[in-house]
Amino acid sequence: MHIRLINKSDFEEIFKMWKRSKLSLDTRKNEKREFDDMLAINPDTCFVAIYKNRTIGSIFGTTNGRRVFIFHLAVHPDWQGQGIGKRLLKSIENPLKKRN
Fold it and tell me: Which CATH class is domain 2-98?
């Protein structure tokens, strides 16, 4: 399993994983728009967890300069309880610290 920055081309697989994870979602169209907006604004704090070319987790992080906000932290149900969520949270720490 590895964690990397999210690419725009990851949306379909991530959206499927969100649905499987029972994440509270808006319409596909709105989620796609928000996904694209989040990547445009926060390209260095949006990560995906991958295992054998399969999307198993995601996290979106942003800051307003004082607080950090986490969006769409999700782990595929088959992979929950294995520390992937913690690893995703850890992956955004340094990029967000660099923004102060």
Answer: alpha beta
